[in-house]
Amino acid sequence: VDFTAQALSEAIGNHVVIYPVSALSALQAKQRGDASGVEGSGMSRFERDFAAFLIDEKAAVLAKSAARRAERLIAEETNTVRVEAETLRLPVDEATVLVTRLEEVAARTATSRRDLEALLEMEIRELMGTVEADLATLGPVETDRLLAEAHRFLDAHPNPRSAADELDTAIKASLRRSINTWQQTEDLKLAETFKAATDRFSTETAALVERTTRLCSQLFDIELTPPPQDESFDIDSEFTFAFFDPPDEMQLAVEAIRRRTPKSIARRMLQRKVDDDIPILVDKHCGRLRWDYSQRLDKIRTRMTGELTERLDGTLSSLRRGIERARSRHAASESDLMATTAELEETLRRLQSVADRLRGVNETLPPAPDPAPTSNLTHGATT
Q1: pTM above threshold 0.70
Q2: Within 13 Å of residue 60, how many CA atoms lie on the same side as its CB?
């Protein structure tokens, strides 16, 4: 167990915990009511740690995400109320000018947003280009390796007429191990570049949102709050192996003939089949890897640009709502306006109270678990 944990930790560059478990021993011990037997099976330790992971780490991630979302909604509504209160103090014609100037800010912000999205798209294309180049190397190398491995297997096998199933299992297991290792290595290779690209985009996003908020603050001559940023962009791998291809009638006929031919002929037939099938097998899985990386990177790009759009649209929409609410009240009497102003001040006080409570909740939440060294290009199950 120690050796395996050390080997895995070195391979993926991150600490690994191994849980040796006997499910059968655990079941039998539970049926006997043998608590020490359940503990000895390793299952109790795994259950405790897994429950802690689900309750503590996952709960913390979900709670932080919910708190950020709530903070964003409160920030937007606070800005709406502040703009509404300020616009109520202005004559109707000045409020109309504010609308025009706000849309000018929105237009400039939209241009900056498109520039940022184009930058991120270029970064993602460059990352995918790296993957394409590495896959172009992997394909021929893996094909040659598997062909050599298959030929050695056939040369050593005493009965080529019965070797096909064993060889098929061995080649697929070898390809699975090789691809898993390659994928871990590739993720580690991309990690630094990927993190730099996403960090740069996140930083530029925050700067653009803050700049837009500041321009609007100057426009209305009031303090506005930029919405908080969601920093969670993990996307798991969806790569799976696909080894099964149903044989057609011709393949079945050839297989039946090969099993009845002399060993020397059967060996040559199997070697030709291996030489034909292995390049196709490797190319198919290189294609699946290419699709997996493309999908993972595109999902991250979509989420990050969606986050940028949501924050900017939320900021600008909250200000538009405030102006429209105020303009709809401009025809009210002076006494009604005074009552509305008092109501808005009370709403701001309540929003501030909720914001303070949320900050308190955030401070009590445990920190989210450290990200894996693959920098959000994390693996799911490769089965």
Answers
A1: no
A2: 12
